[in-house]
Amino acid sequence: MPAHGALKAPRDAGGDGDSYAGAVDGLRVALPERISACLFDLDGVLTRTATIHAAAWKEMFEDFLLQRAGREHDDHEDLRPVQMPSDYVRYIDGKLRSDGVRSFLESRRIALPEGSAGDPPTAETVHGLAGRKNALVVDLLERNGVDVYEGSIRFVEVARDAGLRCAVVSASKNTGTALAAARISHLFEVRIDGEVAEQRGLRGKPAPDTFLAAARALDTPPEAASVFEDAEAGVEAGRAGGFGYVVGVDRVGNADALRERGADIVVADLSELLVNR
Fold first, then answer.
1. Residue 119 known to be catalytic
2. Domain map (residue ranges) of the chain
3. Which tens digit of pLDDT belongs to each residue from 145-159?
4. Is 41 a known active-site residue?
């Protein structure tokens, strides 16, 4: 995927000052005039893979907690089964894989060695558990495939047609696989994912590092870019990075939390931001 690319459709000069016009089905995207780039989270915003990730996290942690309960452990540890969706939304969603492991373990007062990125999935370390989760995701993706949110994909198509530059910003290391499986790789000039974050030493959400990296790759200042996120940590990252417009996508009934974290607007799907020309 190229880091840069020119989109030939010009911005609509005859608009109403708060949107861009596109030729796709006579629709336009309702975004502030200052916005010239769109930075999209993947899981839960564009694709339905959030449910796959949540299922993998739940299976991995429940197996870990069950095994730990069956042998000697510190009495202060909280080994209750994973509470879904609350544990996922609060401690895991939107974060880099290892950060999600650390956050959940901290919530249960469990201390594990950090380990290293080369740890096998059997290792009882932060990186080992992260590897277990990844193996489950890969298996689920291969068995179930990747479905998209059609309205959100239509939004991306209209945005591109209007001349807005588009990037995917995801914590997942499987972003490339998911994009290819969903057949939407061609819609994005830039991809900043878990692999890129690890290579460059970028902090994960709620830090704004990955979104800022995507904006730089698109030659766009943060104030001219819009962030689209369904995760509370992702919305926090958009606000922390000083981005011009932060759109929260409510797929699980957490609209109020997304607003509290700094979303300028919350929608159920990006199709709500499409209007007739």
1. no
2. 20-48+146-276, 50-144
3. 889 999 999 999 999
4. yes
